[in-house]
Amino acid sequence: MSVTMRDVARAANVSIATVSHVVNDKQGARIGEDARRRVLKAVAELGYQPNALAKTLSQGRSRFIGLVADAIASTPFAGQIIHGAQDEAWRQGYVLLIANTEGNAAAEKEAIAMMLQYQVHGILYSTWYHREIEVPPPLQHTDTVLVNCYAVDAEYPTVVPDEEQGGRAATEELIAAGHRRIAFVNTTSPSPAKTGRLAGYLSALEAAGLEYDASLVFEAEPAQEGGYAVAASVIESGVSAVFCHNDRVAMGLYDGVREHGLRIPTDIAVMGFDNQEVIAAHLRPPLSTVALPHYELGAAGVRTLLGIGMERGSSRLLVECPPIARASL
């Protein structure tokens, strides 16, 4: 049977209130050193474990951090957000409570309500891809950080990938490899990734003194089929290199390039985005790409919630997207 506070009080020959004050480190409680020593001795000998939930409810705070996600636990690489948040929470002395709602509004509402009942220190609200959201109203009742998503009209701290820096890094890798006529295959889907990566591409060209040619920016479905469908047009443009919106588009482009009898990177260099390991590392040749920093997004989200790292007065933290060099340049 579990040891109770009453058992400790009996063994130490003190009141239950005295035991409570000692184990909860009650500030201002007038307890003699001899009584405190007897309580601590009884706690050690009996193996007493305080009730964490009761302590949380009495103190109005807990060592729990909530994470509410729409689908990131079931996506091929974005589950790293959970991994990063969990590791950082442990480092800071907290435990992560995770709810993966799969986009179900009722499940999301119930998960947030339960976390509020447990008086979590705060909640990370995350989506599996970078996009604008409407913040669930219950999140107004606790400290909240948005991770991999943002809300235009709500003032919440936000941690998101630096899409523009990532697009610039991808283009700079191609420029550094000696390419001067570079195409960009962008997505057809409106998103921060679409606008940010294009801005980065343009910024890198300008910094290198290369003239922007609008005819070298193509739009394609953000999937393997999209890359395959646009391959002929990219080849006909006469470019020596192409930066693809994501690794799946690059995979389709690989297929199209081979069908035209060309080789990567001898005839055309290819740069992806995402660093989706199951694709990028296993293409032939392995795909050079830019990583979406999912692990660091989760870790930075926890630090931001705890008031660590974000500059004072800032509400948005941009996390760097690093280039990953392989063999396609």
UniProtKB/TrEMBL annotation:
Pfam families per the UniProt record, alphabetical: LacI, Peripla_BP_3
CDD domains from the UniProt entry: HTH_LacI, PBP1_sucrose_transcription_regulator
Keywords, ordered alphabetically: DNA-binding, Repressor, Transcription, Transcription regulation
Keyword match Disulfide bond: no
The keyword DNA-binding belongs to this UniProt entry's keyword annotation: yes
Matches recorded under InterPro entries: HTH_LacI, LacI/GalR-like_sensor, Lambda_DNA-bd_dom_sf, Peripla_BP_I
The HTH lacI-type domain, residue ranges: 3-59
Highest taxon listed in the record's lineage: Bacteria
Record-linked SMART domains: HTH_LACI (SM00354)
SUPFAM superfamilies to which the protein is assigned, alphabetical: lambda repressor-like DNA-binding domains, Periplasmic binding protein-like I
GO molecular function, one term: DNA binding
The protein's name: LacI family DNA-binding transcriptional regulator
Native organism: Propioniciclava soli
